[in-house]
């Protein structure tokens, strides 16, 4: 062994010279193994030796556990820089064409791995495990935790991966090809936010670089879905979406992804509390002075937006995906796939009407929003529902959560602030016309920070920091 190339929780990687072939070098991965895992590790090591792909180092040998329980994988030594190092040498900002080509090549090698029988799951895709060689060649390295994903492998024996890039199911000890897709989405988000974010949040969305192709936004969101069922069906689908010839010259239009999209999520504590009324009022208040706005009715098959369209247009929607009222685009009964498409359309603001949020996946959107609004009631017989909700969600409550009480008086607001232990509790007066402009002043304490955001954003300069 010449020297240590790297080390981590799984063990170490050494640079070793070949005793029989002068000048030939190998990378030797040392891992401590539990006795119960010896057979599995050996079977999967033999599987790795059969893999042949130009973007994978060749695994040439495996040494069974020694007396101390150490196992060794011997693989081709790859010279070059990992992706983080390469970005630093490039001045901290990678060109979008390079990012797209890199992503396509990663898709190709993941396709190859997932096509094995049983599929091979890489499980630790991250910048440190992507090597950039001469001429821009790429290799995925560190197969210490890759494993097959046969039907009998419903649960992995250990929880592996890197925090920030590992899929949620890996923390529960499970992984499959969709886990690699999540990591690829995290990697793309990392590259498109200047190395600042690998998990989707509203802050991450605002940090997206200005030259990012618009189609990448919904693609990244979908890949980063917490539920594997909500991601793409395969890496092949991802590859079709991100081919460079789909993007044109990459320029953004005004109000596009580069400027960022602000989100308001409105959740009702009980049916009929006024969540839809509040969402519509917020959307029209924003659209009047601060940019292109959409209001989305999420996850319902027959909701209020259909009735609004009938009243406004005089006829049913008849399959119409969207209609507009006074400068606001209304998207009725949108599913999660449609939501990803809406986020890619360059809106300045998107208001989500979540109803009572019966679907846990919809609650993810509430947690992600820039401004999450919870609509309840200050009446004696309904106020307890709002307090119960806050106590039930106490572990997830954020300081920016805002509670809205329609028609509440000052005394009721003070009482609810005391009961909730939360300052952001406001009254919503009667709005005779939520489609008009009279809502702006009463919504100022709740969403006023968004009114001026359009003027500030274009001056941001994004990149690796």
TrEMBL record:
Residues 1-248 form the Protein kinase domain. The keyword Kinase applies. Pfam families: Pkinase. The keyword Coiled coil does not apply. Keywords: ATP-binding, Kinase, Nucleotide-binding, Transferase. Its EC number is 2.7.11.1. Gene3D superfamilies: P-loop containing nucleotide triphosphate hydrolases, Phosphorylase Kinase, domain 1, Transferase(Phosphotransferase) domain 1. ATP binds at residue 29. InterPro entries: Kinase-like_dom_sf, NEK_Ser/Thr_kinase, P-loop_NTPase, Prot_kinase_dom, Protein_kinase_ATP_BS. It comes from the Bacteria. It is an enzyme of class 2 (transferase). PANTHER family: SERINE/THREONINE-PROTEIN KINASE NEK, SERINE_THREONINE-PROTEIN KINASE NEK2. Belongs to the protein kinase superfamily. NEK Ser/Thr protein kinase family. NIMA subfamily. This is non-specific serine/threonine protein kinase. It comes from Saccharibacillus kuerlensis.
């Amino acid at each position: 062994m010449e020297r240590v190339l790297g080390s981590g929780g799984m063990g170490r990687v050494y640079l070793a010279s070949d005793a029989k072939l002068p000048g030939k070098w190998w990378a030797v991965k040392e891992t401590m193994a539990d006795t119960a895992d010896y057979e599995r590790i050996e079977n999967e090591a033999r599987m790795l030796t059969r893999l042949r792909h130009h973007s994978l180092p060749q695994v040439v040998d495996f040494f069974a556990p020694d007396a101390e329980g150490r196992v060794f994988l011997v693989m081709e030594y790859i010279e070059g820089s990992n992706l983080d190092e390469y970005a630093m040498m490039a001045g901290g900002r990678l060109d979008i064409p390079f990012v797209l080509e890199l992503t396509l090549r990663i898709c190709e090698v993941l396709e190859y791995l997932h096509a094995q029988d049983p599929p091979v799951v890489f499980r630790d895709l991250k910048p440190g495990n992507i090597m950039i060689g001469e001429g821009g060649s790429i290799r995925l390295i560190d197969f210490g935790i890759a494993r097959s994903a046969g039907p009998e492998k419903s649960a992995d024996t250990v929880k592996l991966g890197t925090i920030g890039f590992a899929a949620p199911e890996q923390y529960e000890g499970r992984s499959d090809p969709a886990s690699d897709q999540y990591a690829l989405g995290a990697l793309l988000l990392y590259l498109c936010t200047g190395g600042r974010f690998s998990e989707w949040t509203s802050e991450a969305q605002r940090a997206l670089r200005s030259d990012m192709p618009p189609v990448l936004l919904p693609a990244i969101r979908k890949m980063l879905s917490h539920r594997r069922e909500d991601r793409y069906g395969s890496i092949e689908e991802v590859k079709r979406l991100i081919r460079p010839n789909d993007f044109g010259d990459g320029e953004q239009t005004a109000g596009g992804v580069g400027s960022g999209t602000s989100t308001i999520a409105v959740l009702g504590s009980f049916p009929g509390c006024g969540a839809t009324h509040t969402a519509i009022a917020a959307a029209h208040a924003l659209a009047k002075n601060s940019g292109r706005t959409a209001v989305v009715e999420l996850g319902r098959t027959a909701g209020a937006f259909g009735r609004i369209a009938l009243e406004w247009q005089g006829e049913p929607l008849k399959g119409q995906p969207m209609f507009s009222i006074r400068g606001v685009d209304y998207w009725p009964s949108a599913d999660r796939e449609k939501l990803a498409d809406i986020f890619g359309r360059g809106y300045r603001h998107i208001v989500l009407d979540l109803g009572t949020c019966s679907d846990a996946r919809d609650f993810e959107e509430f947690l992600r929003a820039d401004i999450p609004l919870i609509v309840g009631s200050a009446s004696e017989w309904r106020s307890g529902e709002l307090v119960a909700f806050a106590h039930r969600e106490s572990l997830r409550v954020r300081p920016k959560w805002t509670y809205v009480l329609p028609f509440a008086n000052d005394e009721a607001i003070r009482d609810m602030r005391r009961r909730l232990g939360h300052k952001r509790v406001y009254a919503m007066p009667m709005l005779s016309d939520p489609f008009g402009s009279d809502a702006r002043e009463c919504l100022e304490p709740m969403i006023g920070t968004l009114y001026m955001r359009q003027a500030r954003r274009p001056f941001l300069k994004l990149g690796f920091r």
